[in-house]
Amino acid sequence: MAKIAIYDIHRQQVSEREIADQVFNADVKEYLVHDMVRYQLAARRQGTACTKTRAEVRGGGKKPYKQKGTGNARQGTISAPNHVGGGIVFGPKPRDYRFKLNRKVKKAALCSAISSRFREEKMTVLNQIEMEKISTKAFADILGRFEIGSALIVVDGPNPQVELSARNLPRVKVLRVEGVNVYDIMKHPNLILTEGAVAHLEGALAS
To answer: CA nearest 171: which of 184, 154, 156?
Structure first.
């Protein structure tokens, strides 16, 4: 099993622990990560784009002018697609963009994303993150000690001080461990976990 150092918020190493290889040091399968990111982004799409066909455009029940004698091409209705304001040919209609991925694929993709950060040495584990009060400046100082500007921070439970302190930092996101996902891991170049979050992920993904 791989080992990783545990730090406090002052960047002092306080201990070291073994981590499950199948979660944090697994084979990185980029195609699964790609499929999972597509899956998440597709599920976020509203799918509400809608255009009117020639049958749905208001008006157009009468021929705009007579069939013969005008010198123009014959026209049966002003709602035809060749008229300005007419119907749209093959335009978008409301639809669901979601598609299915198997549970094993989702699990393997998440392990691959986490393992990629560990192998890049972009994963940091803290024993805990405690703040006396809500302070964006104080939280930015903590990240500054680790020389980190952009990161996904995963905590093992409700932590209002941390969640609210990080809210105004544009390149930082705080997630509770049950909400960790591939897209957010890949979006942020650094991954910060609490020791409790590491244990939770091992319990959920190592089996």
So the answer is: 184
